[in-house]
Amino acid sequence: MIHHQQDNQPGDLRPLLRPVTLGGLELPNRVVMAPATRCRADPAALTVTGLHAAYYTQRASAGLIVAEGTWVSERAVGDYPSVPGIYTAAQVAAWRRVTGLVHAAGGRIVLQLWHPGTGFGPGPAPAAMTAADLRTAVTDFGTAAARARRAGFDGVEVAANGTYLLAQFLHPRLNRRPDGYGADRGRLLREVTDAVAAAWDGPERVGVRLSPYWTIRDEPRARPQPDGYPYTADEQTLAGYDAAVTALGEARLGYLHLRGPAPAAPSPAGPGGPGGPGGPPDTEAVARYRKLFGGPLVANHGYGPGTGNGLVGAGLADAVSFAALFIANPDLVSRLALGHELSAPDRGTYYRGGRHGYVDYPIWSGR
Ligand SMILES: Cc1cc2nc3c(=O)[nH]c(=O)nc-3n(C[C@H](O)[C@H](O)[C@H](O)COP(=O)(O)O)c2cc1C
Question: Contact, 324 vs 292, CB < 8 A?
């Protein structure tokens, strides 16, 4: 169990519990469930199942659920097993059941759209993709966004984070293209967000997730790279992100979902989890993007009740997202509201285990 301070007075709604509007999304609280791949889709059809419906419905008290990274097309299936797609009729129908139940339980849910580029890890996508390939990728994102709308989602989040296609294009050492997509490394991301926004009749239900500070520490499945790991948050990388985020700010998106730098010290359960009790997250980084973007900002990475409330209370972010804590605490919002202890996640069941470590985390029962 992780203990946190109960410092609120009765009737004093702490910052994370106040309602907020992110573009076209009205949230009753600012506790966002961060996207988390759990590798539990049907392995052949890549459809979500009744387990997903239960998992997300259990967490419907989140201000907003960002559903796990989901492949935008058959051409864009990466090498994680049992990650769902949104490109077949069966996948759309299966997601519709999830969104319907989340809505029936009073929640809101957006879908994270995933394109892995040329496989996981820092692949050669920027160099290898032809102009036709790029047009296809943009179209695939737009089509997936339209399907997500038909599946009943409240919006979509474009994943430009981690090591996926759009992050590869943003990166100065991976994108050395001699054309316009290299001279302006944010161009592909903007084309994608435009295509996605068109499918939603405007940008207010479209979020973008970025992780400018991604390093090898963030890689869930680090492999040796012949030329070293190219993702580092050096000045050149951050300057590129500054330009990309400034341009995104003009697009009037629903929100920017920033995965900030890893918290200073690893949390007791090891890197990545349980999130919160590690060292304090770097709020200067959040402040930098808040200023550059100008629109609604959701901050992430290592926040807990105290740091999350502090960040929102200081006006540095509109909401905070939690991955590890939402995995382990389906009733995270009421635990935060009432100052109850938080459960720690079991990392061994992050990407496997069927129902175990997925739908069997208990709600708080007073013990
Ligand atoms: C099991 C697991 C799966 C994840 N899958 C995704 C994903 O599908 N898309 C994504 O953008 N981030 C993913 N992440 C990253 C989280 O959204 C988040 O950035 C990270 O866990 C740090 O937040 P936290 O400290 O609240 O856990 C995943 C994290 C975990 C632990």
Answer: no
Going from the Cα of 33 to the center of ligand 1, the distance in angstroms, rounded, reads 10
* Contact status, residue 139 vs residue 97, Cβ threshold 8 Å: no
Q: Determine the average pLDDT of the residues in 50-54.
A: 98
Structural domain containing residue 34? 3-349
Measure the CA dihedral 212/206/152/320, to 10°.
Answer: 50
Reduced to 3 states, what is the DSSP secondary structure of residue 237? helix
pLDDT of 234 reads 87
If one counts the domains in the chain, the total is 1
In a domain, 177, yes or no: yes
Res 197: pLDDT: 98
- Ligand 1 pocket, mutate which of 37, 322, 347 (most atoms under 8 A from CB): 37
- Residue 159: what are its φ and ψ, rounded to 5°? -85, 105
Q: Which of 118-132, 204-218, 295-309 has the highest mean pLDDT?
A: 295-309
Is 29 a member of any domain? yes
User: 208 CA distance to ligand 1 centroid (A)?
Assistant: 15
- Name the catalytic one among 56, 164, 181, 361: 164
Query: Given the structure tokens 């997500």, which residue do they identify?
Result: 148
Where does ligand 1 bind, in terms of residues with CB under 6 Å?
34-37, 68-69, 112, 159, 161-162, 209, 259, 272, 275, 300-302, 322-325, 350
Q: Is 367 within the bounds of a domain? A: no
CATH code at position 42: 3.20.20.70
pTM over 0.90: yes
Structure tokens at 347: 């990392």
Average pLDDT over residues 188-209: 98
| Structure confidence by residue, pLDDT tens digits, 303-357 | 999 999 999 999 999 999 999 999 999 999 999 999 999 999 999 999 999 999 9
Active-site annotation holds for 361: no
Q: Which two tokens stand for residue 276?
A: 């919160």
Does residue 172 lie in a domain region?
A: yes
